[in-house]
Amino acid sequence: MKVLKTIFIILIIIVAIPLVAAVFVKKSYDVERETIINAPIDEVFDYVKYLKNQDNFSKWASLDPNMKKEYRGTDGTVGFVSAWSSERGDVGSGEQEITNIVEGQRIDYELRFLEPWESRMPAYMITEKVNENQTKVRWGVNGKVKYPMNLMMAFMNVDKAIGGDFEAGLNNLKAILEE
Q1: pTM (predicted TM-score)
Q2: ∠ CA 74-78-80 to the nearest 5 degrees?
Q3: Which domains are present in the chain?
């Protein structure tokens, strides 16, 4: 009986330590990259506000040339949804919906991942006029991880994991708009 009690206490400690540690681990993340594009702000914003155009510059859109895509609504307007589905595990399935547009300045999206795991996160693109022929574009996401799953944040650098994908996408966007 004493052995069972000792095993039970050890198991409780093994479970309790990560749960207590998760209380102290951050529960949110922000990833953002930016670039300067040699094009007027109106031209840049009029291109990035259409979700279908992300297929031309987003690194994620190029991961699976056979991914199925579906669109609902009017592109470039609030409520438009771009959905994807792929057999590849690193692409999965999900959708992106335009949730807000401040004309000439900002587009907000909600990303909804369905597979390989379910999650939601807000994303955005911001355009800022540098001068008449240059525009700064910022592309990013931010999100929250619920307790106790936030313990993974202690072992994972979200910025490092996806920041390079934003950079690649912005470099592609720059090349397209500066042609």
Answers
A1: 0.83
A2: 40
A3: 2-177 (3.30.530.20)
| Alpha helix positions (H), the chain | 2-24, 41-48, 54-57, 158-177
Give the Cα separation of 59 and 94 in Å (integer). 16
Amino acid identity at 178:
E
Is 129's pLDDT higher than 80? yes
Query: 68: burial class by Cβ within 10 Å (0-12, 13-18, 19+)?
Result: exposed
Closest CA to 15 of 158, 171, 151: 151
Instruction: Return d(Cα 23, Cα 45) in angstroms, integer.
Output: 41
The Cα–Cα gap between 77 and 30 comes to 25
Number of Cβ within 10 Å of residue 48's Cβ equals 22
